[in-house]
Amino acid sequence: MTPYTALILAGGQASRMGGVDKGLVELAGQPLIARTLHSLAAQSQPPARVLISANRHLDAYAAYGYPVLPDTLPGYPGPLAGLLAGMQAEPDSVLLMLPCDAVQLPADFATRLLAALPGRQVVSASDSVQWHPSLLALQPGLTDALTAYLAGGNRSIRGWLAGLQHDTVPFALPFANLNTLQAVAALAQQWPAD
């Protein structure tokens, strides 16, 4: 099995959540970052290493015991800036990128993405509802390509993936998409007791 580094994106502005720090929003009594870390630890193939991309409350994220990487670019340029920081920190590693609200990953999530990666630069996940370009695995060696893409003023993950050898891996059950506090509250109503 391919060893990989997991990169959790928690560095956004969460504008649809009123600007709160999304990774620290609680779901059924635990912050989303803790739920996502638990989901990663439950993988049939857990990561060899975990990195957290964050730009605020760095001490709160560091308390989980993993390296915390602020963006290396100014002005909150989006998830690709977090990805770039991860690629710069682990230039020789296969990266598995996921947002801090990936709280219900199937146990074979990493295994299936990594199995689809040979022969491609990047693979991302889709489900029965939509494509999730921020749930992806990518080969090392793409740092220069991403740096050039961002230097051109581009910010879209979809746009960057369109220029790469890319494929999607379908999953049956929908992934959580917690972009509002209401969505977090709704999921909390269904969350099993810890």
Give a written overview of the molecule.
The protein has a single domain, classed as Spore Coat Polysaccharide Biosynthesis Protein SpsA, Chain A (Alpha-Beta Complex). 30% of the residues lie in helices and 22% in strands. It contains 7 helices and 9 strands. Strand 2 (26-27) and strand 3 form a beta hairpin. The protein starts with a strand and ends with a helix. The mean pLDDT is 88.
Give a summary of the structure in a few sentences.
The protein is α/β, with parallel strands linked by helices and 194 residues long. The chain has helices spanning 32-41, 58-62, 79-89, 109-116, 143-151, 157-162, 181-190, and strands at residues 4-10, 26-27, 30-31, 49-54, 68-69, 94-99, 122-126, 131-138, 166-170. It has one domain (4-185): Spore Coat Polysaccharide Biosynthesis Protein SpsA, Chain A (Alpha-Beta Complex), CATH 3.90.550.
Count of DSSP H/I helices: 7
Q: Largest sheet, described in full?
A: 7 strands, mixed
Rg computed from alpha carbons, rounded to a whole number of angstroms: 16 Å
Give the overall shape. Answer: globular
Query: How far apart lie the N and C ends?
Result: 31 Å
Per CATH, the superfamily is Spore Coat Polysaccharide Biosynthesis Protein SpsA, Chain A
